[in-house]
Amino acid sequence: MTRLHVDFILPCDPSMGVIHHGAIVFDKTILDLGDGGAMEARYPDATPVVAPKGSVALPGLVNPHVHLEFSANQGVLDFGAFVPWLQSVIAHREALQEAATSAVIEEAIASMLRTGTTAFGAISSFGLELDACVNTPARVVFFTELLGSRPDAVDILFNDFKQRLRGAYERENSRFKAALSIHSPYSTHPILAKNALDIARRENLIVSTHFMESKAERLWLDAGKGDFAGFFKGFSPHAAPLCSGLEYVRLFQGTRTLFTHGVHASFPELDAIGTQGGSITHCPVSNRLLGTGVLALDPVFERNIPLTLGTDGLSSNISLSLWDEMRSALFAHPDVPLNTLAKTLLHSATAQNAKALGLDAGVLESGKAADIIVMALSGATSANLPLHLVLHAQTPSHIFIEGSLVC
Ligand SMILES: [Zn+2]
């Protein structure tokens, strides 16, 4: 049993309040927390860990959306507009896959851990990162992804998907959970999506999908026009949208789904996502680099849709640190009061992300997983602590996962 003493505890519950001179008592789960003196009196035999002055303990960060298989991208893909980027992904896919060696993927995971991400959702197109995700001390929700729009290939694609999903199931343990991803409304045939979502409902699996990331996607699904019209003509002269945006959202009824991006989602689509209990995963750096715009936060909040925050992959980012992502988000929404937004982002990066991934973590309270990070913030005071963390935090001094010190 460990008793961790810090100057500040930020439990990241909805109040985003702060406990001064506190201590957290835990083994694999959190047993108690509160005033440091009271915890010492109540648990005198627990092994004390005293963090340096100015330290803040908070839940480990949770990244709900990352593509580790594209971790070798550095200067290869075209940024600035969505469809040209997608074309560059297709053109360089094999080379990027080859370059994504075990060492590259392990370093990408290590970079997340080093910056305090203790759990992540890996979107897996091919299964290249499976071993690294099973072997990391971090918690992983492994989203086996389904993609493909050719009706004549539906059976082959679905069988391949089921095989990869089974491969993930076989590796499940206390920190590694299988889940599934439907790539997007423009790329995945609704019959395939429906079959996979039947599995998700039956097995109670968490689901992820890209949704309304770009203006091109909006134009294509609404009217069969825009950049995607030219893109799909390269595959078939008779290409047409597979379903409407709203039809696509409704396919996910009865599942726990993270809708990633949502920058161009319409109000009726957001209404449906809210009613169905879905969340929106905000990836502001990816959206900036692919020229897809900025997610409007008010329509998300007005519908009480949980806002989650992810980095996406290095295919559309330069960092897998959620601190970097929060800093970018802070500057992407100048209309939201600064301190309010910092609290919202930190709550998203911890409690909201963990809840969306179905993890019993992301909040420091009795009974939750002891996934805890300590950030040393010299000169910290309790005034506006979330903002100062978002502005200055880089790497934790301590990282505990399931109560064990991992670095
Ligand atoms: Zn993505």
UniProtKB/TrEMBL annotation:
InterPro entries: Amidohydro-rel, Metal-dep_hydrolase_composite, Metal_Hydrolase, MTA/SAH_deaminase. Residues 57-405 form the Amidohydrolase-related domain. Pfam families: Amidohydro_1 (PF01979). GO terms for molecular function: hydrolase activity. The keyword Hydrolase applies. Keywords: Hydrolase. The keyword Signal does not apply. This is Metal-dependent hydrolase. It comes from Sulfurospirillum tamanense.
